[in-house]
Amino acid sequence: MTISLTNRSANTSDLLTLAQWMAGNFSNPNLAVANSKQYAHIHFLFRPLPFNCFTGIGFYSEQVYDYGLWAPYSMVFKRVSDVFRRDVEPDNKYLIPRKGRQTYLVSELTLTENAWNSLDKGMDVETPEQIWGSTPGLLCFEKKQNFANEVPAVSDLC
Q1: Range list of β-strands (E), the chain
Q2: Considering the domain boundaries, does residue 2 fall inside one?
Q3: What is the pTM of this model?
């Protein structure tokens, strides 16, 4: 199934499926063990919030290194439509200053019911040089805990 993340008229069913696939605790132990010099062992979760928090589907999101489970390096509250429609802009418009240079985000994401595979790279706005992000390839995460049952019901969305 393909869900358009740029189509502003994405239907409720697609957004609900997306939210159910996102709802979970993900980790990359296999990737981190197999390639420990290139990949850290990372955990991230998307925990569904009650419908009334955003009058829609929303998540609390957190990212932590395996060695510091009680010290998240990223914590965010987001509405599903905001996450995918505003964070990654088309045509290299999502600019991020890094290492003294202006970069734009190139992001790839494949999400299934049980896996999250992503690649984020920061490319120099003046040259095709990659400034930050994964150089060896995709970050492959497995869903370790599923929170899909916590996503608001369709009847709450209509």
Answers
A1: 24-27, 42-48, 58-65, 74-79, 95-98, 101-111, 115-124, 130-133, 139-146
A2: no
A3: 0.77
